[in-house]
Write the structure tokens for this entry.
Amino acid sequence: MTELELTQHMAALAGRNIHAGQRVCFLGGGSYDHFVPAVVDAIASRGEFYTSYTPYQPEVSQGNLQVMFEYQTLICQLTGMDVSNASLYDGGTAAIEAVLMAMSVTRRSGKVVVAGGVHPEYRQVLQTYLTCLDTQCVMIGADRGTADLEALAAAVDDRTACVLIQHPNFFGCLEDVAAAAKIAHDAGALLVQAFDPISLGVLKRPADLGADIAVAEGQSLGTPMLYGGPYLGIMACREQFVRRLPGRIAGQTTDREGRRCWVLTLQTREQHIRRDKATSNICTNQGLIALRAAIYLSALGPQGLRETAELCLQKARYAAERIVACERFELAFGAPTFKEFVVRDTAGEVDQLLAGASAAGYLAGVPLGGWYPDLDDCFLVAVTEARTRAEIEALAAVLSKS
């Protein structure tokens, strides 16, 4: 093609994209259509932040280092943990970095136990990382929507480095993290919890549930869905593990004139130290998304986060009730949920159902059969604070007529 023809061809392909404004979004599974306050874009797009979020010379990057310090502080307050880094690529790689960190801390590499409710793509990434390691990855079933604790207890032994659990899990169900933590700790293993940051407006913090390392996808904190990225990997841990924490940690100190300033306290990534001594090869291109999270959390504050979480909880419950009011649908699991829930289509026509809803203007949910063959008649629905009663009722009506 000539340059002109290629430009026209690419423009035609781009024109096939569906803009968020053209569909009402009930998609979830790790990426959510939350409301983003205008202040997030206004501050994050300032030139001093937008073009300089990788401070290799900390002495000329005080503003960025302060942002990292504030971000870490907010994440520690959010999770109850002692230390946070700043930051990782996304929720999936953060979870895997936490598993590798647990293996380093416990000096155990024989086994990792993973709850079946952990995001299936997180589990796929973990399998990739463990391919060349002599580590057994044991998956615990979630037939009822949550981890089978008896099977979990039977799988954990003195070879286990950690238990990885997600709460709320991929299905939106709430796990018994405290029980899983006790099982792990009794065997000398660590508990890694993946969490939804918004859920902590109403749920207990990971540290309060006994988690040793907490990880999350931070997209819900002030970043649009963005076709899948760039996103933000959140990671925090207890203080005794700080030297095993991958990435960078910004600290606050004073300069020689006694003025408050910021430094990179720990930088255990291979860009700063010898590769064989590094805890990770993680880079820093997610610093801008961490800035967005810091602005978002600062703007909402504790009360705003609680109100957002309560709206997600209440609207999701209302949506579930409206959808299952049609005899064709039922909830796949009986466990309590937050923001997301799994709907079973008793007619078994999920693909046609979702296609019809899309044509009517609604992205109704995520089909689950590709990850869970036994749930090929189910789809995952997410309801955030951004959805209205009218949109929820219209979705239920569209689904019932499909």
